[in-house]
UniProtKB/TrEMBL annotation:
<feature type="region of interest" description="Disordered">
    <location>
        <begin position="307"/>
        <end position="336"/>
    </location>
</feature>
<protein>
    <submittedName>
        <fullName>ZIP family metal transporter</fullName>
    </submittedName>
</protein>
<feature type="transmembrane region" description="Helical">
    <location>
        <begin position="199"/>
        <end position="220"/>
    </location>
</feature>
<feature type="transmembrane region" description="Helical">
    <location>
        <begin position="90"/>
        <end position="111"/>
    </location>
</feature>
<dbReference type="InterPro" id="IPR003689">
    <property type="entry name" value="ZIP"/>
</dbReference>
<keyword id="KW-0472">Membrane</keyword>
<keyword id="KW-1133">Transmembrane helix</keyword>
<dbReference type="Pfam" id="PF02535">
    <property type="entry name" value="Zip"/>
</dbReference>
<feature type="transmembrane region" description="Helical">
    <location>
        <begin position="260"/>
        <end position="279"/>
    </location>
</feature>
<keyword id="KW-0812">Transmembrane</keyword>
<feature type="transmembrane region" description="Helical">
    <location>
        <begin position="32"/>
        <end position="55"/>
    </location>
</feature>
<feature type="transmembrane region" description="Helical">
    <location>
        <begin position="226"/>
        <end position="248"/>
    </location>
</feature>
<feature type="transmembrane region" description="Helical">
    <location>
        <begin position="62"/>
        <end position="84"/>
    </location>
</feature>
Length: 336
């Protein structure tokens, strides 16, 4: 009870009059500071690929195909084991989810056509005019940016429920990001970028998680409405990038040793995402189910609006007649 009051979740008219500056400060920290700090933490995980800066070029040429194979497994595992099941849970129709997944694949196909068209008109080297590797890397950046934006929506929604829910959601997202970011850096290097440039661009794409947080905090209702549809579209993009760009590029490295290593690494990426998904499903109640975060966030929008105006969520008399304010915390103390 004391911790909830200190964190600013349970407001009363008396506490607002006694220390309005403290209440406003705690509300700003809870509503803006904690989600943005969590988003910055998730974005910084993209720098994990910086280890490639200290690998010799000859050794890097051997490591990069392995990292691309890991990216294939992670992308496919994330799409089929994480994003699509969440979309089915949110939308409730497998047929609609399949349509949105196909729409995502077609959309990314069109984006890649635009990327390749621009590349053919921008470069003058006839040998590089195809731009296959560069287009593959750019497509990976587009898909990663959309996925990170969705992560930002999840982070903001979870902190709207409770700081503890926000922290556990952030930890779950970090577990997802570690293998994916390593594979993304390898894919960018495989696409022709230098290791330093690949790490930098990967970090820039990771910053879209902050855009997702800001979008959700500023336009919460619109973010919650878009969330179920962004999931299958992102899944379609991941499937397209893995199947159309990454997998064909792996066939250039032939030989039983290379093929066996690539298959094993793809399987390891899928198993990694499977393990994370199983962990989330069998976590204790304190670890949030991300598929319910959007619903939880919608339930707290009215509470957040009330706290910003200094109203008490337990005193409906203080609220406008058309506003229904309810506290989602079962341990909030009853008000007389």
């Amino acid at each position: 009870m004391i911790m909830q009051a200190a964190m600013g979740w349970c407001y009363s008219i008396t506490s607002t009059k006694d220390s309005p500056k403290l209440v406003i400060a705690m509300d700003l920290v809870n509503h803006w500071g904690l989600p943005l700090l969590a988003a910055l933490t998730v974005a910084s995980i993209s720098l994990i690929g910086a280890f490639t800066l200290w690998i010799r070029p000859a050794r890097l040429r051997v490591v990069v195909p392995v990292l691309v194979s890991l990216a294939v497994g992670v992308l496919l595992g994330d799409a089929f084991l994480h994003l699509i099941p969440e979309a089915v849970e949110s939308i409730g129709s497998v047929f609609q989810v399949c349509l949105y997944v196909l729409a995502g694949m077609v959309m990314f196909f069109g984006v890649e056509k635009v990327v390749r068209w621009r590349h053919r008109h921008d470069v003058f080297d006839a040998a590089a005019a195809d731009g296959g590797g560069d287009a593959m890397a750019r497509m990976n950046l587009v898909g990663d940016a959309i996925h990170n934006f969705i992560d930002g929506v999840l982070i903001a929604g979870s902190f709207s429920v409770d700081p503890v829910v926000g922290v556990t959601t952030t930890l779950a997202l970090i577990a997802h990001e570690i293998p994916q970011e390593i594979g993304d850096v390898g894919a960018l290097i495989h696409g022709g970028y230098s290791p330093r440039r690949a790490v930098f661009l990967n970090f820039l794409c990771a910053l879209t998680v902050i855009a997702g947080v800001l979008f959700t905090l500023l336009i919460a209702e619109a973010a919650n409405a878009l969330m179920p549809y962004l999931l299958p579209v992102s899944a379609g993009g991941f499937i397209y990038i893995a199947a159309a760009d990454f997998i064909p590029s792996l066939h250039s490295h032939r030989g039983f040793r290379h093929d066996s290593l690539q298959v094993a690494t793809v399987a390891m990426g899928v198993l990694c995402m499977l393990g994370i998904t199983v962990f989330e499903q069998h976590s204790p109640p304190s670890v949030p189910d991300q598929r319910a975060l959007a619903t939880f966030a919608r339930a707290t929008i009215s509470l957040n609006h009330a706290s910003h105006r200094g109203l008490s969520p337990h005193n409906p008399v203080d609220a406008p007649p058309s506003t229904t304010i309810s506290c989602v915390h079962s341990r909030c103390p009853p008000q007389d």
